[in-house]
Specification:
The complex is a heterodimer. In chain A, 13% of the residues lie in helices and 44% in strands. Chain A contains 4 helices and 14 strands. Chain A is globular, with a radius of gyration of 20 Å. Mean pLDDT of chain A is 92; it is low at 20-28. By secondary structure, chain B is an all-alpha fold. Chain B has 2 domains: 1-33; 35-149, Globins (Globin-like), CATH 1.10.490. In chain B, helix 3 crosses helix 5 (74-88) and helix 3 packs across helix 7 (111-127). The radius of gyration of chain B is 18 Å and the shape is globular. Residues 1-5 and 19-31 of chain B have low confidence and may be disordered. Classes of the chains: A mainly beta, B mainly alpha. The interface between A and B is large, with 39 and 37 residues.
C-alpha cells in the first residue's frame, strides 16, 4: 500500500470513528500507548498473531470503550486461511471478540473426493466462528515497570466449526463440531529493556484450532497447552518477535486415511508489527504450521501471514 | 516438531536471560554505586534543561495536557522535572519538593491523562534525538510513579 494512503488511513479513521457520538470521547482520548493493546490474534482476541495476550483490544482505558477490527490472510505452500473479526473492550478490563475463519484445504479436498468418490469434497473449505470473552484480573503490563507482576487475564473462546461435507466424517472420528477453550494469559512489558513477554496457558480439545472439530475417539479430554510470545520494541511504532503455540494432537491415532494421517504439529511464527498511528497497524509474519493432514500433504506448511487492523 | 520445539526452548532461554538482565538492572539502581550512564545519554544537565523546556511547550500545546499546566508556575514545574529526571537517571541531583502524591493531590488525574503525558514526553525526547532505548529506560524509572500520580479512576 502506498505510504500516502496509509497516512490517509491514519488521518481519516479517527475522524470517522469520532463521528459516532458514543465513541467520540474514547477515540479522541485514545488513552493507551501505541501498540500496547497488541494486535488481533487469528481467534479474534487482542494479543499476538497466534495467541491471546492479557491486554484488551483497542486504546480505551478506565471508563472507556476501545475496539478493533482486523482482517488476516495466511498462505502456506498448500493451504490458505482468511480470517476477520472485531473486538470491543470496556474499561481496559472486559473484552468481547468475534472472529470468522475460512480455511482452504487445497489438495486435501480433491484427495478426499477421489478416495470417497464424492465430488462435493472438491474445493473443501473448513470454516468456524469464534466468540471470545476476556477479563483482565490483575496487574498493569506497561506501567508497573519496577515489579515482576505481569498483567493477567482469563478468557474463553467458544468455537463453532462448519466443516461442510467433512462434518459427518469428523463426527465418525469422535470429534464434536463445537468446543470452548479456556485460557489464562500473563503479559509483561520489560519497559527499560523494550521487551514484551507473554505466556498463555490454554485448556483445549481443538483439532487444528477447531477447524477439524474438538476431541476425538479416545482423546476427548482437555489438554493444557503453552503459548509463548516474545517481542522486542525497535521503536514506538515497530515491534518484532517470535511466537510459539503448542497444540493437542487428538487425531494422532486416527487411521482412516492411513496411520498418522491426521497428526498435527505445533505452530510458530516470526513477526513484525508496524503501527504508523493508533488507528491502523499492519502485521507481517513468517509462519510454520508444521504438517497439516500429513496423510495427504507430507511437506511442512510454512508461509506468509499478513494482518491489517484498525483500532480506536 | 523438533525444530519448533528447539525454537521454543531458545525463546524460553532468551526470556530467562532478559529476565535475569532486568533483575540485575533493578538491583544496580538500589546499590550504593550510582550508574549515571542514562543521565549522560539524556545529555546531562544541559540536555535535561533543553528537554524539559521543549516538554513544557508541548504540554501547553497539547489539548489533553493544557488544562493541567496552563495555570501552574511553569518555571517551578520545569525545575522540578529537571531535578527529578536527573535524580532517577543517576545524575547528581536530589529532589526536595513534596512527594509525588502530595504534588498531584490538587488535580484529578486518571490513567488516560498519565498516558497522554507519557506520549508528549516521548515526542519531546524524539525531538531531542534521544535514542529509543534511553527513552524507555527513563520511562521505566518514571512509570511506577503512576501509583502516586493517578488519583482518579
Amino acid at each position: 500500500m502506498p505510504l500516502h494512503r496509509l497516512a490517509l488511513a491514519c488521518a481519516v479513521l479517527p475522524l470517522a470513528l469520532a463521528s459516532a457520538p458514543a465513541l467520540a470521547q474514547s477515540s479522541m482520548h485514545s488513552g493507551k500507548l501505541l501498540l500496547t493493546g497488541g494486535v488481533s490474534s487469528i481467534d479474534g482476541a487482542a494479543g499476538g498473531g497466534l495467541t491471546p495476550w492479557a491486554v484488551t483490544g483497542g486504546y480505551g482505558t478506565a471508563g472507556e470503550f476501545g475496539g478493533s477490527a482486523f482482517a488476516t490472510r495466511v498462505k502456506t505452500q498448500d493451504y490458505g486461511l482468511t480470517g476477520y473479526g472485531v473486538a470491543i473492550a470496556w474499561d481496559d478490563r472486559f473484552e468481547l471478540s468475534l472472529a470468522h475463519q475460512d480455511f482452504d484445504t487445497g489438495p486435501v479436498g480433491g484427495a478426499l473426493a477421489g478416495v470417497l468418490g464424492d465430488p462435493s469434497f472438491n474445493d473443501l473449505r473448513l470454516k468456524q466462528d469464534i466468540v471470545g470473552l476476556k477479563v483482565r484480573v490483575a496487574g498493569d503490563a506497561v506501567l508497573d515497570s519496577d515489579r515482576w507482576m505481569p498483567q493477567v487475564a482469563v478468557g474463553l473462546q467458544h468455537k463453532k466449526a462448519h466443516a461442510g461435507p467433512l462434518a459427518d466424517v469428523l463426527t465418525a472420528f469422535g470429534a464434536k463440531d463445537s468446543g470452548t477453550d479456556l485460557y489464562v494469559s500473563a503479559t509483561k512489558l520489560f519497559l527499560g529493556q523494550g521487551v514484551l513477554v507473554n505466556l498463555t496457558l490454554r485448556a483445549t480439545k481443538a483439532n487444528q484450532n477447531g477447524l477439524l472439530g474438538f476431541g476425538a475417539t479416545d482423546h476427548d479430554r482437555y489438554r493444557v497447552q503453552p503459548e509463548l510470545s516474545l517481542a522486542y520494541l525497535f521503536s514506538k511504532r515497530i515491534a518484532a518477535g517470535i511466537e510459539y503455540r503448542a497444540k493437542p494432537d487428538n487425531l494422532r491415532d486416527n487411521s482412516a486415511l492411513g496411520a498418522g494421517a491426521l497428526k498435527e504439529d505445533d505452530w510458530a511464527d516470526l513477526f513484525v508489527a508496524w503501527a504508523p498511528c493508533k488507528s491502523f497497524s499492519l502485521t507481517a509474519a513468517y509462519v510454520d504450521l508444521g504438517k497439516i493432514v500429513p496423510g495427504v500433504v507430507t511437506r511442512r506448511q510454512t508461509g506468509a501471514y499478513v494482518s491489517a487492523q484498525i483500532a480506536f | 516438531m523438533t525444530r519448533t520445539l528447539s525454537l521454543c526452548a531458545r525463546a524460553l532461554l532468551l526470556g530467562a536471560a532478559i529476565a535475569a538482565g532486568s533483575a540485575q538492572a533493578q538491583s544496580t539502581n538500589t546499590a550504593t554505586q550510582i550508574d549515571d550512564a542514562l543521565y549522560r545519554q539524556l545529555g546531562a544537565q544541559p540536555g535535561l534543561v533543553k528537554l524539559v523546556d521543549d516538554f513544557m511547550v508541548r504540554l501547553l500545546a497539547d489539548p489533553r495536557m493544557n488544562p493541567f499546566f496552563k495555570d501552574v508556575d511553569q518555571a517551578h514545574v520545569k525545575a522540578e522535572l529537571v531535578t527529578q529526571f536527573c535524580q532517577v537517571s543517576g545524575g547528581p541531583c536530589q529532589r526536595k519538593g513534596p512527594d509525588m502524591k502530595q504534588a498531584h493531590a490538587g488535580m484529578d488525574i486518571n490513567k488516560n491523562n498519565f498516558n497522554a503525558l507519557v506520549e508528549v514526553l516521548q515526542q519531546a525526547m524524539d525531538a531531542q534525538g534521544i535514542a529509543f532505548t534511553a527513552q524507555n529506560k527513563l520511562l521505566a524509572l518514571l512509570a511506577p510513579m503512576h501509583r502516586d500520580i493517578i488519583n482518579t479512576p
